[in-house]
Write a structure and sequence with these properties.
With 171 residues, the protein is mainly α. It is built from seven helices and no strands. The relative contact order is 0.07.
């Protein structure tokens, strides 16, 4: 009786996991990205940004290589040029992300880096002529205001909490 109840509970748990699998993976993703920033910040005490990017690149390459070979996917994909361009731009972006984590406090670097949805919205309206509705416009304004509050209103008061160079790197 006890074994059948345990098996039944495990099956229910497995079924529930299938229902919430996306949420679990989203939580794990956020958790590990959080850990990454903490590890980058602690490693930056003794290592330079380029060294951290190199080590991460090596681990990513090994993991990706094994995954591609296991699934019998071509290493170079369908478009070699686009893959190389993505690698170069991704490496440059990663360098700037890690450099901003090294230069700024974690909350400042993270707050600035997560402005990308706001810039995506602005660029989409300018470049692609997408319509920006009132709610989205209000969200963009509140997003900028929220980051200004977190950063203690730089450029308004004479408090030099963040240098302009560090802010540009983080953006």
């Amino acid at each position: 009786l006890s074994l059948s109840v345990t098996i039944q509970k495990l099956q229910t748990l497995k079924q529930n996991f299938k229902s919430y699998k996306g949420y679990v993976y989203m939580f794990l993703s956020a958790f590990f990205f959080c850990l990454m920033t903490v590890f980058v910040k602690s490693a930056s005490v003794k290592l330079g940004t380029m060294q951290i990017v190199l080590v991460r690149g090596i681990f990513t390459f090994i993991f990706t290589f094994v995954l591609l070979k296991t699934n019998k996917v071509s290493l170079w994909g369908r478009s070699y040029k686009i893959l190389v361009l993505r690698g170069i731009t991704g490496s440059i972006a990663l360098y700037f992300v890690y450099e901003s984590i090294q230069r700024l406090s974690l909350y400042e670097a993270t707050s600035i880096q997560y402005l990308y949805p706001i810039f995506t919205t602005i660029l989409a309206s300018v470049i692609l002529s997408e319509k920006v509705y009132k709610k989205i416009f209000l969200s963009v304004i509140l997003g900028f205001l929220g980051v200004f509050v977190l950063l203690k209103f730089p450029f308004i008061y004479n408090v030099k909490s963040i240098s302009v160079q560090s802010l540009i790197i983080a953006l």
